[in-house]
Amino acid sequence: MNSLWLEVRPFGSPTSACRLRTALFQTLVQLGGSFGLALTTVIASSYRTKALDAGKDAVRAQLTALHAAFWLAAGCSFAALAVALIALRGMGTIGKTKTQQAH
Q: Measured on CA atoms in the order 13, 14, 17, 23, is the torsion positive or negative?
């Protein structure tokens, strides 16, 4: 996913601070994608080699490798969801003050 169009801009924030937050966010998105791709490639390669050594044909070995990489990515996604739910718990509605939320 290419998210170069995304700009993080909270209401009432100065433009220079927005640029800094956006640059930091974009850097973390790129690094996360790079590390995720590298890790899934290592896992897939390892599982493919193990499957070939176990006597599976090339197609079955590749399928085994893709399954392992998929489950790694799914596990990381569910872990990130859990962290986000815990970290954002009790935050309320974004963009509203506490007096607006009470009504």
A: positive
Give 47: exposed, middle or buried? Use CB within 10 Å, 0-12, 13-18, 19+.
buried
Tens digits of per-residue pLDDT, 4-14? 555 555 555 56
User: Which 8-state DSSP code applies to residue 97?
Assistant: -
**Per-domain residue ranges of the chain:** 15-89
User: Would you list the DSSP string of 33-64?
Assistant: HHHHHHHHHHHHHHHHHHHHHTT--HHHHHHH
Residue located via tokens 């801009």: 9
- CA distances to 44, 69, 78, 87, 101 from 94, in Å: 40, 35, 23, 14, 10
